[in-house]
Amino acid sequence: MTTHPDTPPTAHPASQADRFVYIVDDDEAVRDSLRWLLEGAGFSVRTFHSAESFLNAYVPGHFAVLVLDVRMGGMSGIELHDELLRQNHNLPLIFMTGHGDVGMAVARMKLGAVDFLEKPFDDQQLISTVNNAFQQAEEKQTDSEKRALRQELLDRLTPREQQVLELIAAGRLNKQIAGDLNISIKTVEAHRANIMDKFEVRTMADLMRRFLGSSGQ
C-alpha cells in the first residue's frame, strides 16, 4: 500500500481488519525505511515528520499503534506522549531512542507505553513489538466492551434489582437475600423474575453467564 508522508487518514470506525501504524520521526530516511518495512508486514502506515504534524492530523477512531522517536526538533516524543495523555487518547505507543535511558523507559511504560526500542534495532524486533502492541490494544478494547455491556445491562435495573443481582451473584439464596434486604421472599422472587426479563435470559445459569461474563470474571 502506497502512502505519503504527513497524509492524515480518513476517520472511520475502528476495525481489527484495519491496523494502522503511525510513525513520527524527524528523520525522513528513518520514516521511509520503517514505512516500507511495516507495509511489507501487512500494516497500513502513516508517517509524520514532527509531533506537531501528527497532533494536527490525528483523528481518534482507527485501531492503531504509534511509533515515535524520543528526541525530535520542536515537541519531543515525551512531550507528545504527555499531550496524548492530557487529551485522554488511549493510543498504544512504542518509543524509539538512540539514547538509552532506563529510567525514562520505566517511567513511560508506567504511563502506558508498550515498549522502548533502542536504535539500531532489527526489523523483526520492531514487527514483533508492533504486533504485541496491537494484541494489548485488542485486550483493552475487549475489556472496555465488557465494561460497557455490563453497565448497559445494569442500567436496565432498578437500584433494588441491582442489589438483588449482586447477592444472587454472591451465591445467596432467596431466603438469605430477603433477610439481607429486609424484604419478603416473594419480593425477592419478583425481583429475580424482573432481572431475568431485563437481561433477556430464561435460566439462572444463563443470567450468571451473562452477568459474570460481561463483568470480565
Automatic annotation (TrEMBL):
<dbReference type="InterPro" id="IPR011006">
    <property type="entry name" value="CheY-like_superfamily"/>
</dbReference>
<dbReference type="Pfam" id="PF00072">
    <property type="entry name" value="Response_reg"/>
</dbReference>
<keyword id="KW-0805">Transcription regulation</keyword>
<keyword id="KW-0902">Two-component regulatory system</keyword>
<feature type="modified residue" description="4-aspartylphosphate">
    <location>
        <position position="69"/>
    </location>
</feature>
<keyword id="KW-0597">Phosphoprotein</keyword>
<dbReference type="GO" id="GO:0003677">
    <property type="term" value="F:DNA binding"/>
</dbReference>
<dbReference type="Pfam" id="PF00196">
    <property type="entry name" value="GerE"/>
</dbReference>
<keyword id="KW-0238">DNA-binding</keyword>
<dbReference type="InterPro" id="IPR000792">
    <property type="entry name" value="Tscrpt_reg_LuxR_C"/>
</dbReference>
<dbReference type="GO" id="GO:0000160">
    <property type="term" value="P:phosphorelay signal transduction system"/>
</dbReference>
<dbReference type="InterPro" id="IPR036388">
    <property type="entry name" value="WH-like_DNA-bd_sf"/>
</dbReference>
<feature type="domain" description="Response regulatory">
    <location>
        <begin position="20"/>
        <end position="134"/>
    </location>
</feature>
<dbReference type="InterPro" id="IPR016032">
    <property type="entry name" value="Sig_transdc_resp-reg_C-effctor"/>
</dbReference>
<protein>
    <submittedName>
        <fullName>DNA-binding response regulator</fullName>
    </submittedName>
</protein>
<keyword id="KW-0804">Transcription</keyword>
<dbReference type="InterPro" id="IPR001789">
    <property type="entry name" value="Sig_transdc_resp-reg_receiver"/>
</dbReference>
<feature type="domain" description="HTH luxR-type">
    <location>
        <begin position="150"/>
        <end position="215"/>
    </location>
</feature>
<dbReference type="GO" id="GO:0006355">
    <property type="term" value="P:regulation of DNA-templated transcription"/>
</dbReference>
